[in-house]
From TrEMBL:
CDD domains tied to this protein: REC (cd00156)
All copies of domain Sigma-54 factor interaction, residue ranges: 151-371
TM spans (from-to): none
Gene3D superfamilies documented for this protein: 1.10.8.60, 3.40.50.2300, Homeodomain-like, P-loop containing nucleotide triphosphate hydrolases
Organism listed in the record: Ferrimonas aestuarii
Protein name as it appears in the record: Sigma-54-dependent Fis family transcriptional regulator
Keywords: ATP-binding, Nucleotide-binding, Phosphoprotein, Transcription, Transcription regulation
Residues that bear 4-aspartylphosphate: D56
Amino acid sequence: MKTLNTLILDDEPVWVDNLSQLISELPVEVNIIKSSDPKQCASILESVEIDLILLDLMMPDINGLQIINEVHCLYPNITLVVVSGMDNLATAVECMRAGASDFLVKGSETELLQQRLQTILEKTNLEINYRSLVDRYFEPNAEFDANYASLISRSPKMQQLIGYAKTIEHSHAPILIQGETGTGKMTLARCLGGEHAIERLHCHSDSQQWLQQLLGYSRGYQGFGQPQLGLLHKLQDGYLVLSQVELLDSYAQSVLFELLNHHHYSPLGTDAQLPIRTRIICTTLVDLQPFVDAGKFRADLYYKLSVHRMRVPPLRERTEDLELLVPHLLQQLSAEAALAELPNNLYELLRSYPFPGNISELSALLTEAWYQGEEQLSLQVLTQRCKTQPNSNSAIISHKVVFPNPLPTLTETNELLIKEALNRCNGSQKDAAALLGLSPAALCRRIAKL
């Protein structure tokens, strides 16, 4: 494993030495750079390739949050971890939005703090190794880059996603794309399709109507006077995107599984066996695994769809893309909007808002600000929206929670909820705590009791 260059930045020299000692006792190769002067941060980063920064928030002259913002923008691959004396959820969330990956409390027990530090160091090393593999095996291929020009991004997560998408372009297996509303799932599907014909079919609970659109039907079927060709016929050698596949009922799921398993279909009302020459892409707003566990989604269909599985990250996980997305969206709006002078604190303002509607909501916000601003972006509109945090339920998908039978106990439910939060946050206890409405310390205590 790589020796991690770790910068400890805190205005209390004694704490810097103590933290350095705690880290040196861990079974991880670390080269520690210590500094009690936040003004030295910029010069250190210019002279040493830093992998991890452990920093305090309350420091003289330069606030720790300002350092997080600047480092995250200039050095997006550096892992930033706050080690603060403040055990405050709002502060932790603010740091997360600025670019920190974890939040530790100075007053924590030594053993617990060392465990958290070891996890952070090991995760940082894994991320470095992963980026190395991506750089080695997923190098951009100029021949295919034009297909992905509509995915406006420079974030590492999106670049990894694009790299993976390029490797599966010529596979015939189905693709499953998960992502919140407005993240660009259909845009990614179009990139995968390249120059091939592509259409979207929305999934819904009316399986009969959905199957008629998918398979088509013969003359006289259920009283229809004329036959209708289904999308599987119209899109031969093309791509079909089945949107929100989680909404399919059990019968439609069984039909879809048979189609993918046997590679042929029969239009409704006929016995004809026609080959499927259409590549299937399924999109979902949610993680399907809980649906499978609860028996609401066929396990065999889920495994069939998961041969190639991708998750499009929400905008709040790739705020470095705002500097690219805003000019692009303004250019789409009008030539005048593209040339408009942007408010000085625009990107800081946008980064403070979580955008539950993601890029679609960002586009709508810029459109509203432009038309209300009289040939410039209305700072009042932007401030009003970004300073008003969305309702906590606004980003929740409008489907019923599925409980297993028998009903779990409260203790079992808490355990499942914590595990699901950690899964959604890729193991980050700080992010999971924010998602659950707990402080990181409170979540640690609950995990210890599991």
